[in-house]
Design a protein that fits this description.
The complex is a heterodimer. Chain A is an alpha+beta fold. Chain A is 19% helix and 41% strand. In chain A, strands 1, 2, 3, 6 and 7 form a five-stranded antiparallel beta sheet that branches. The longest helix of chain A has 10 residues, at 70-79. Chain B is of the alpha+beta class. Chain B contains eight helices and ten strands. Chain B has helices spanning 21-27, 61-68, 73-87, 131-144, 170-173, 182-189, 197-209, 220-239, and strands spanning 30-35, 42-47, 52-57, 95-100, 103-109, 115-116, 148-149, 154-157, 162-165, 180-181. In chain B, the strands form three sheets. A five-stranded antiparallel beta sheet of chain B has the order 1-2-3-5-4, with helices on both faces. Chain B has a three-stranded antiparallel beta sheet with strand order 6-8-9. Chain B has a two-stranded parallel ribbon with strand order 7-10. In chain B, strand 2 and strand 3 (52-57) form a beta hairpin. The longest helix of chain B has 20 residues, at 220-239. Classes of the chains: A alpha+beta, B alpha+beta.
């Protein structure tokens, strides 16, 4: 069994309906790079990968990227806080390692 | 009336009263609300006959951080909207204080024909908006000393060539974060710093009203922010030139 940390990112469409545009995942015991599940051509996801996000939680200088692991994951909810783009808190789930 | 014309065709439609969005947000009948998925507490509400709005509860999780520093999002969102209104810029979607399901917060008009600016990172977003609109946005961000105006905190309406500024919260207007404003930087680097007369007049209008934007009961940090806005307004009027933060 593998413990996974994940954050979901939602966007509001013109009818103010939420649509999920990505899930950011980090396996607790393997590697330290956050994987992004979603349309890699989506401009918001492209922006995150190449522009990074800020460390809102501790106001440290510089930016965070998927390779920053849990720090990146933990700051997504502060970066995407507008309602138009909204991220969840870091959540956990356990998956079958063989899956 | 000539033959063949119907009675209705000759009736003039009386001018319609201008819609006061803020009054609708304050008093409009909410017929439906739905909680959004996400860390920040939002609800999308439908107002009878008048579209949708975003409700943000005052006491949310990020607020817990801001509360320690005596800055509340409700107060900041309303302040930003009031500054925008005093300027006559129409850059901030209208906001009103409102309670919903027993929770106090703010209700902001939902902008349905615009997208978050980072949708246009691969394009020249500056060419998508009206030049004066862009300068107004840069001026606004200078005035409020915007600290988190990245491409995730403003919307672009390509059809109307319009900008909408959002997320006037602790990170945007407090003192724990200092990224600045992408809009203001773009204006400075692009040499769009000389302020047209229309904007000078707007700034003078703001200066006349700014002392009445908040009352004596406002929290000290809010008064401090308004004092800073006033100083920067005076600077812009005197120099007629936009400058870096």
């Amino acid at each position: 069994m593998t413990l996974i940390y994940f954050v979901e990112l939602f966007e509001l469409d013109r009818e103010a309906q939420q649509k999920k545009i990505a899930t950011f995942k980090l396996a607790a015991e393997e590697g330290r790079v956050v994987e992004i599940e979603g349309d890699e051509r989506h401009p918001v996801l492209q922006g995150i990968k190449f522009e990074g996000i800020f460390d809102y939680k501790y106001a440290r200088p510089g930016k965070l990227y998927p390779y920053d692991g849990i720090k990146f994951l933990d700051n997504l909810k502060y970066h995407f806080r507008s309602g138009y783009l909204l991220a969840t808190d870091v959540k956990e789930k356990t998956i079958d390692s063989g899956a | 009336m000539s033959e063949g014309q119907s009675f209705e065709q000759n009736q003039e439609i009386p001018p319609q009263p201008r819609v006061d969005v803020k009054t609708i947000l304050e008093q409009g009948e909410i017929i439906h609300s739905e909680t959004l998925k996400g860390y920040e507490c939002y609800e999308v509400v439908s107002i009878k006959d008048d579209g949708k709005a975003l409700f943000r509860e005052g006491a949310d999780k990020i607020e817990a951080v801001a509360t320690k520093r005596r800055l509340h999002r409700n107060d900041l969102e309303v302040l930003a909207a009031n500054i925008n209104e005093a300027l006559g810029f129409n850059l901030v979607p209208p906001v009103a204080r409102r309670s919903l399901n027993g929770k106090s917060g703010t209700l902001q008009q939902f902008v349905d024909n615009a997208k978050i600016a980072n949708h246009f990172l691969d394009e020249d977003w500056l060419s998508m908006v009206d030049r004066l609109e862009f300068i107004k946005a840069a001026v606004f961000d200078y005035l409020i000393d915007a600290k988190d105006r990245g491409c995730d905190n403003f919307l672009i309406d390509k059809d109307a060539r319009k900008i909408w500024l959002i997320d006037h919260d602790y990170y945007m207007m407090g003192d724990a974060f200092n990224y600045g404003s992408d809009i203001l930087r773009t204006a400075i680097y692009g040499g769009l710093t000389v302020l047209p007369e229309e904007i000078i007049k707007a700034l003078q209008g703001l200066l006349e009203k700014i002392d009445s934007i908040i009352d004596e009961t406002a929290k000290p940090k809010i008064k401090e922010i308004v004092a800073g806005i006033k100083n920067r307004t005076e600077t812009l009027i005197a120099t007629r030139t936009l400058k870096a933060q």
